[in-house]
Amino acid sequence: MRRFLPKKSLIFFPRKSCDSLAGELRLQSAMAVITSIYNLLSKRRFSSARELLRSFMAQNPAPPFSSIASTVDLSEKKRRASATLIDMLFREYSEAGMFEESLAAFEFALQNFGSFDQRSCDAHLRNLKKSRKFEQSFNFFRRVLDLDRRVPISVQAMAMVLDGLCKSGETKRARQLFEEMLERKLQPNVYSYNSLIKAYLDSGDPSSALEISAMAEKNRVSRNAATYAILIDGFAKLGKTHLAEKAFDEMTNEGVLPDVHVLTAMIDLLCKSGDLKRAFAFFDEFVDRGLLPNAHTYGALVNGLCKRGQMQAAEMLLHDLQSKGIDLNIVLLNTLMDGYCKKGDFEKVVDLQAVIEKKGLQLDVYAYNTLACAQFLMKNSEEAKRLLRSMGERGVSPNIVSFTTLIDIHCKEGDLGEARLVLKEMEKAGFSPTAVSYNAMIDGWVKKGSLKEAEALLKEMEGRGVVADVYTYTSLIHGHCVLGKVEDGLALFSEMEGRGLMPSVVSFTAMIAGLAKEGRSEEAFQLYERMLKAGLSPDDDLYSSLVGSLYT
Description:
This protein is about 70% helix and about 0% strand. The chain has about 550 residues and is mostly helical.
């Protein structure tokens, strides 16, 4: 027969006692492992010692440094072995992402041994950078600097910290650290220069980027292909074509061989400036020299062709790409889809969706937006809305273009209430409405003849700091003129010009048609002349309405 002890005989240990017991067991375990590691180190079996330590550290939770520090033998006899042990601990904590513990090991080593291994510091900085702990990386580097050469500083460590500061948007602090290094007679390497150059270009400051590049030349730091790729790409994005081409010429004169990144940056620049002939000549020249283009290189050329509407040539280029063993990716297929959409070949856009899915690629937000646009323009508004609504279910977050496209579809369908709900949904998702978002709704209310709601939206957008553009004014001018409120239309036209906005063909046409409809032919013809002087070409219908106004 089983017997059970009465409840009162059960023994419960206080929680504090349990924690104390667990701590004591961890300490005993640490002491046993440390003793074994000392034995291995004395026999110079460093790999075995490291594996044993790694296994011990893999416990969950890993023991804090404080529980191990008390077991370290600081006697003269074990000094070298203990220094090695602490170095190993420092690295293991760092690899595990336990940066506070690794810092404790570092400080323990400095206090007891007076120095630390430079390579371990570099490894720690790499781990911090990989974890995007840029502030901790800077603080650790600053601590090493303050040790006044007790721990040697490598140029690689300097480059990692500078790059981390630049990537986190701390360009000013990065520059200050850079200048401090120069004052300390510690010459940064080319990677540090490259990080600063890129940071300045990304922030729209080409002058400072050129200053750093010139400083590299002055300090006899050889700029490499990566330097010039950064300069060319950065200048191109800022629309500084002449500076980008000058950087390429400078690279050639210095005898720096371009790599595929330079090749891609130059081709992208030439395509965006509309010089496709030169872009292809450039491509052929460097392929003949043995430089292998990648998917990004082909992507720049495909994008250039699609922007020009040369879709057949773009497809031929993609066949060439595949024949060289480079597979199609979602970016290339998105570019092709966008090209066909802009050309009005919507069936091709839908066909490309099937290609993407057959290849097992995931449709991204750009693909969904293009497909929705194509479906809407094919009069399949329900499918367009379904695409935009379903992307979230497939793990793709809509962007501001997705929301704005959905707003535009609802407005064109006359469903302004639903459009307003999408606007609120967009704000809830963290996107601020743009002029494009408001323009779609303003145009929707104008087409319904509801100028009061349209003007209320104009007031709302300006109250929120969204600046009205030429499309905003054109919709309102058209609305007023259609309802015979020509004076209000003229006031808006004047206000638009007063804000420095250049009226478009549609702006002029709406205003001229409004004047002509009211029989104000002299004013209409004056505006028509202004339109021609501005280099804008009216259509035949506008001229007919002008002539007709002479007989009203």
